[in-house]
Structures are given as structure tokens and as C-alpha cells.
Specification:
Blueprint lengths: L2 H13 L4 H7 L4 H9 L18 H12 L3 H13 L8 H9 L6 E14 L2 E11 L7 E10 L2 E2 L9 E7 L4 E2 L14 E11 L3 E3 L15 H28 L15 H34 L5 H29 L9 H12 L8 H10 L9
Parallel strand pairs: 1-3
Antiparallel strand pairs: 1-2, 2-7, 3-4, 3-5, 5-8, 6-7
Helix pairs in contact: 1-4, 4-5, 4-7, 5-7, 7-8, 7-9, 7-10, 8-9, 9-10, 9-11
Length: about 375
């Protein structure tokens, strides 16, 4: 692993708990913190080296996210979104990739792939209108992207598989209207507002065909995109889970409930809760690493990944997320009444990790998809 990026993530893990309250109150990371995270290289983790990126191994990527989430879930979520959006650089035309990613080492690009916009083909590019939810980190980004259905001469354009063509359009920040909509229960510091554009021009060099092949043949860019995104989501959840375990352990050695003769740490039921939570987190992390290693072996050889390998990545990510939730819930319950106060880190862990579960990459329907693959049943793939 690249020691510098891992060491930097550890430093941020120690620093972020003191900033978490500020992020929640302001509903976003400050511009200063976002710039410092960019300077540390976190947003460039998945950008190709040819464009000045770090091009890290997926195991480094998920380790960095876990460590940062152990400091604050919102900060880790913004890093995850910035880093995974950086993958676009491998699929953009070279001119567009260099314009966005090679010109500024601290650049932050964010976006939403869901096709909530319309892009009409015109000479040299597209005329785009749309509105997208969940624009995490949009207030600090220089570039913001949104998925669009493509139209040509007023008719829906079709791709090579005769499906409606969907492209990701990358807008400069000054083309985008950010709406103040992010008032939620958890991950409050992510600033995941709605954003919109109206009748803006996007040149061809700043568009990516969704489902198309990367222009760079390195193993990282042959690795399943959806699998990597799902693992990023799960890594944030695991980091929150490990933070909850640390916070509870500190509480347990000092807290003595009213009328009790022993501290929490001395009670057998509490010891069992800690052990079960530790097992949930460590086993989930091990499954994720195993799935990554198996898929990486194929990506390194240039071999296409079959449905079993892709489904293992998605299952490991979903399992990692829900295992983290189980651990946090158990620890929150064991902490008793002290966990409900707003100055308790456990209540923030509880809120944040439950918001992570709502991301489509790790939501419950993925279990059905993976089950169908394992049983050899046909069906539309979401892998």
C-alpha cells in the first residue's frame, strides 16, 4: 500500500472528530477542509497516473475511506464521492480529462449518474437541462456531473444494444444552480443538495457514455465500476462502525449506571455485545478484501469478470454496510441513555450509518440480484 496516503488518512481520522460538530451545523465541509482533503490526494486516488492521479489499488481506496470514516462519516462520504467521480477521467476523451483533472492537483469533481436530465445533441456537444438529487460535496466542487438521456433531432437516441443512450454530462460549477435541500437525519455534513442546470452547453470532450469502456487499459479501470462504488459506500459504513466501537469502549470503562455496582465494561452482557460487534465488523471487512483480491486477479490479467465475481463484490459491500449497522445498533443499545444526547458520538454514528444503508448500491434489493446469480437464474443484471 502507498504508505503516505494511508498515513495521511490516519492523521485525518484523529483530527476529524473535533470538526464533526461544525460539519453537521453548517451542513457541509468547509471550503478550507475540502481544499486540505484535496491537497492530501484523496480526491485523486482513482485518477490515472497519466493525468496526475494516484491510481491506487482498490484495497488502498477502501482502507483510506474506512480510516477517514472513523473520524467522521460525512468527511469520508465526500472523499468517497470525489474519488469515485474521479474515475470518469479514465473514460473521458483525453482533452476533457486533461482539462478537468490534469490542470489542478486539488480538483474536486462530484456528481450523480442517475439520468435525471435531458441532453439534446447539437454541433460540438449537447444542450442540457435537468435536476438531480444527492449532489454530495457540490458546494465545494469545481466540476459537477449529472446523468442524462440523450436526444437527437427530438428523438430518443439509442445505444449499440438498442437501449436509450445515457451519458454523464460534466458541468463547470458556474453552470450549476445548487438548491438548499439537504435537511436530513444523518450524514448532515455531506451537503448533498439537489442541483440543476437549464439549457447549458456541454462540449463532447466533457461527456461519458454510461456503460462504455474506459480509454485506459490499466487494471484499475477494468475493475467493475459499480462494484468499486459499492465498496466505497460500505467502507464508509465500516469506518463508522469501528468508530462506534471505539467510542463505546471508552464509555464502558468509565460509565456506571445509576444504582449499578459495576461499570458497563464489567458486565457480561456488555462484553458479549462488544465481542459480537467486533466480529461483525472484522468479518465483513475480511469478506470485502477477499472479494476485491479475487476480482483484482482477473482485472490484472485483462480477463473479463464473470457474474459470480461481480456479485461477490456487491454482496460483500451490502454485507459490510449492514454488518456495520448491526454493530452500531448493538453498541447504541448497550450504551443506554447517555447515547441519546447530542454530544454523544454514538448518536451521530447511529444516524450516519443508517443513512448509508439507503444508498442504492448497498440497499436490500442487491441481495435478490446476488441470490439469482448464485442460483443460476436468469434476470437483468444490476452488477
Amino acid at each position: 500500500m502507498t504508505e503516505s496516503i494511508i498515513d495521511s488518512a490516519k492523521d485525518w481520522s484523529d483530527r476529524l472528530p473535533q470538526l464533526a460538530g461544525q460539519f453537521e451545523e453548517e451542513g457541509k465541509l468547509s471550503a478550507t477542509i475540502a481544499a486540505e482533503l484535496g491537497e492530501a490526494g484523496f480526491f485523486r486516488m482513482l485518477v490515472p497516473a497519466v493525468y496526475g492521479g494516484l491510481q491506487v489499488h482498490p484495497l488502498e481506496f477502501i482502507e483510506v475511506l474506512k480510516l477517514i470514516a472513523m473520524g467522521d462519516g460525512s468527511a469520508a462520504w465526500n472523499v468517497m464521492i470525489g474519488a469515485t467521480t474521479g474515475l470518469l477521467s479514465a473514460s473521458l476523451p483525453e482533452q476533457g480529462a486533461r482539462e478537468i483533472y490534469a490542470s489542478d492537483a486539488q480538483v474536486l469533481s462530484v456528481g450523480v449518474t442517475a439520468p435525471a436530465g435531458r441532453a439534446d445533441r447539437i454541433e460540438g456537444g449537447y444542450r442540457v437541462t435537468g435536476r438531480w438529487p444527492f449532489g454530495s460535496g457540490c458546494q465545494n466542487a469545481q466540476w459537477i456531473s449529472g446523468g442524462c438521456f440523450v436526444y437527437e433531432h427530438g428523438e430518443s437516441a439509442m445505444d449499440t444494444k438498442n437501449h436509450p443512450e445515457v451519458r454523464l454530462m460534466i458541468f463547470s460549477a458556474d453552470q450549476v444552480n445548487i438548491e438548499n435541500t439537504w435537511d436530513v437525519v444523518g450524514l448532515r455534513g455531506t451537503g448533498s443538495h439537489h442541483f440543476s442546470v437549464k439549457d447549458v452547453f456541454v462540449p463532447d470532450r466533457r461527456t461519458v457514455l454510461i456503460g462504455g469502456r474506459a480509454n485506459i487499459s490499466e487494471p484499475l479501470y477494468q475493475f467493475p465500476l459499480l462494484g468499486l462504488l459499492a465498496l466505497g459506500v460500505a467502507s464508509v459504513a465500516l469506518g463508522i462502525g469501528f468508530r462506534a466501537l471505539d467510542e463505546f469502549s471508552q464509555l464502558a470503562v468509565t460509565k456506571q449506571s445509576t444504582g449499578a455496582s459495576r461499570k458497563l465494561a464489567e458486565r457480561g452482557a456488555v462484553q458479549a455485545s462488544v465481542a459480537r460487534s467486533l466480529a461483525d465488523l472484522r468479518s465483513a471487512e475480511a469478506f470485502m478484501k477477499e472479494a476485491v483480491n479475487n476480482a483484482w486477479d482477473y482485472a490484472e490479467q485483462g480477463d473479463p469478470l464473470d457474474a459470480a465475481l461481480k456479485s461477490a463484490l456487491r454482496l460483500a459491500a451490502a454485507n459490510g454496510t449492514h454488518s456495520a449497522v448491526a454493530a452500531v445498533d448493538r453498541l447504541y443499545d448497550a450504551a443506554g441513555g447517555s447515547a441519546i444526547y447530542m454530544d454523544s458520538p454514538l448518536q451521530q454514528c447511529f444516524r450516519d450509518v443508517h443513512v448509508v444503508t439507503q444508498h442504492i448500491m448497498v440497499a436490500n434489493p442487491i441481495y435478490e440480484v446476488v441470490g439469482r446469480v448464485h442460483l443460476g437464474l436468469p434476470g437483468r443484471s444490476m452488477l
